[in-house]
Amino acid sequence: MSLSFINKIQECVQFIQERMQVQPVAGMITGTGLSDSLTDLVVHQVFPYAGLPHFPRATVDSHKGALVQGRLNGRDILVFQGRLHLYEGYSPQLVTFPVRLLQALGVPMLILTNAAGGINLDYHAGDIMLIRDHINLTGENPLAGPNEDAFGLRFPDMTRVYDPDLGRRAIGVAAQENIQLHSGIYAGLSGPSLETPAETRFLKIIGADAVGFSTVMEAIAGVHADMKILGLSLITNINDPDAPEQTTLEAVVDTAAKASEKLNRIITGVVEQPV
User: Fold this and answer.
1) 5 — alpha (psi -120 to 50), left (phi > 0) or beta?
2) Sign of CA dihedral 74, 80, 82, 85
3) pLDDT value of position 250
4) Which helix (H) or strand (E) holds 66?
5) What is the spatial distance between Cα 221 and Cα 219, in angstroms, rounded to a whole number?
6) 33 with 115: CB under 8 angstroms?
7) Could you list the residue ranges forming a coiled coil in this record (predicted)?
8) d(C-alpha 173, C-alpha 267), whole Å
9) Separation of alpha carbons 109 and 89, rounded Å
10) Cα–Cα distance between 34 and 261 in angstroms, integer?
11) Which of 36, 43, 46, 62 is the most exposed place for a label (fewest CB within 10 A)?
């Protein structure tokens, strides 16, 4: 008899708790090229995804595929170095495995980072955008199907997906660190093909400031789990439908790596304060 999803989560939680004697205050999932963005993190333990019971494998280059337990500015946190995507063939439920793991571990804060294409032409490559809200254009939802009452409500409210207090905290830290921090709307697509100029023009019309292939599944699960969510997009390229330029994964990773120190400073400052 195969194990249910929640039983798989419980077995993975037990494995981690037997090896981790701390209670993390936050969990972070890193985007493309951002696995090592927390340069101030003091690493205590590393759990490769391949060694975690039932944990899906990250298959994308630049996603390391490891769960790191460490301390950031004196606070215990967990960092998923590399995420899971719909375009890898994973179901929405499996994409949110890390979020459910954090929920079962009692972690109150979820930090989601991603590498995104800029649609707002006031943005520049290397800028950071605080995700104020998102548009789910994937056609998927991790809550579809029978509801698991242990995880959350059947119909969770989505009017405040990204916690306003954490957002204000991030804005304050960015100001102190002299980092420009935009605030905008993230559009989540399924990928992996990049946007056509016509699609980019459509995204701009409906109010998106940045676009990517992640984050929305995890954010929905995080709301379902009643977690406080902070979302940050690192803008790796600008999508101008009137002057389209080709981009590559290598260019995205390079831009993300160069700008990740700014993310480190913002997240370090946010995590310093309790939720």
Assistant:
1) alpha
2) negative
3) 81
4) strand 66-72
5) 5
6) yes
7) none
8) 9
9) 27
10) 10
11) 43
